[in-house]
């Protein structure tokens, strides 16, 4: 197997980074080698296509397998008490679909998945192996993919957190069109704000606050410091967790992943080399 694993120093010494170069899929399910890593704890998966600078950088900081409710089980808060957080159940699934679609179009891209971190919150810590891997090589655009809980009001929420270089509304409109305008959306109005436009699948719009505004996310801020637009997407369980509860892609996740690839390419003004200058 070509996949390799490496080991960092304390306090991240339980994290193993995997440069994954094997097959990704067996139909809708993960290839067995990939499934093993996605169901493990403290594994950082890195998938690359082409060479840097990458057109697209995808990050999944809170992935855990579908039956896991929590991550960060061994993290302690400032008072020394356990501080677990909700797992983004199988959130890597739709990011893997997007990566596959970009790869198949020949787009240089990289996907970084932190599978079940137990000691720290990867995108709130720039020293984490996840953050270091995200920024190890240059890229044009960062999209962080999350899985929200079943009680959330909106199917999809998109925010730039504090990143001023990304146009969240424009990206949301491209993604909404690629998805066939069938879901209820929340889109951040301005960087640093919780205010959002809410778009319903039936066409009516309103204004409200985002539930998950990504204002604590340091990777989005670091991306701006490096001149990179960055967005944060929250997708409800329908996009991440198949009804049969297996670690595979759900039908909505397949649609979302493919639509993301399409929206990313439109957003970046990407033209296939075969098509010539556009
Ligand atoms: Zn998350």
What would your notes on this structure say?
- The structure is a single chain.
- The protein is α/β, with parallel strands linked by helices.
- 24% of the residues lie in helices and 25% in strands.
- It has seven helices and 16 strands.
- The strands form three sheets. Strands 1, 2, 5, 6, 9, 10, 11, 12, 13, 14, 15 and 16 form a twelve-stranded mixed β-sheet that branches.
- Strand 12 (156-159), helix 4 and strand 13 (185-188) form a beta-alpha-beta unit.
- The radius of gyration is 18 Å and the shape is globular.
- The model has no long low-confidence stretch (mean pLDDT 92).
- The protein binds zinc ion.
- Zinc ion (ZN) is lined by residues 62, 88, 146.
Give a short overview.
By secondary structure, the protein is an alpha/beta fold. 24% of the residues lie in helices and 25% in strands. It is globular.
Task: Sum up the structure in keywords.
Aminopeptidase; binds zinc ion; 25% strand; two-stranded antiparallel sheet; alpha/beta; 278 residues
CA-CA gap between termini: 40 Å
Summarize model confidence as the mean pLDDT: 92
Work out the helicity level.
10-25%
| CATH homology superfamily name | Zn-dependent exopeptidases
What is the chain-wise order of helices and strands? Answer: EEEEHEEEEEHEHEEHEEEHEHH
Query: Strand fraction band?
Result: 25-35%
Shape from CA axes?
globular
**Coarse structural class:** alpha/beta
User: Could you name the CATH topology?
Assistant: Aminopeptidase
What is the level 1 CATH name? Alpha Beta
Bound molecules: zinc ion
Instruction: Please state the CA-atom Rg, rounded to the nearest Å.
Output: 18 Å
Second CATH tier, the architecture = 3-Layer(aba) Sandwich
What are the segments in which pLDDT stays under 50 over at least 5 consecutive residues?
Answer: none
| Oligomer classification | single chain
Question: Number of DSSP helices?
Answer: 7
Q: Give the beta-strand count.
A: 16
The figure for the number of domains is 1
């Amino acid at each position: 197997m070509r996949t390799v694993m490496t080991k960092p120093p304390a306090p991240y010494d339980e994290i193993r980074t995997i440069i994954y170069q094997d097959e990704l899929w067996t139909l809708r399910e993960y290839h067995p080698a990939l499934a093993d890593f996605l169901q493990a704890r403290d594994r950082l998966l890195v998938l690359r296509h082409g060479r840097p600078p990458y057109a697209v950088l995808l990050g999944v900081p809170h992935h855990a397998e579908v039956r896991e409710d929590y991550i960060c089980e061994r993290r302690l808060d400032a008072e020394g008490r356990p501080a677990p957080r909700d797992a983004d159940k199988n959130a890597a699934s739709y990011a893997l679909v997007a990566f596959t679609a970009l790869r198949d179009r020949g787009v240089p891209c990289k996907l970084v998945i932190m599978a079940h971190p137990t000691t720290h919150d990867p995108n709130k810590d720039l020293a984490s192996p996840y953050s270091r891997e995200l920024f190890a090589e240059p890229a044009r655009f960062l999209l962080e993919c999350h899985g929200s809980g079943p009680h959330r009001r909106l199917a999809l929420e998109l925010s730039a957190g504090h990143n001023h270089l990304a146009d969240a509304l424009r990206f949301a409109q491209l993604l909404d069109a690629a998805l066939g305008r069938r879901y209820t959306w929340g889109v951040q109005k301005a960087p640093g704000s919780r205010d959002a436009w809410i778009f319903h699948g039936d066409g009516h719009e309103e204004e409200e606050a985002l539930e998950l505004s990504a204002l604590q996310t340091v990777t989005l801020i670091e991306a701006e410091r490096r001149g990179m637009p960055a967005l944060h997407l929250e997708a409800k369980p329908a996009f991440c967790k198949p009804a049969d509860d297996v670690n595979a892609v759900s039908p909505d996740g397949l649609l979302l992943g493919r639509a993301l690839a399409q929206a990313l390419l439109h957003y970046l003004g990407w033209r296939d080399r075969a098509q010539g200058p556009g």
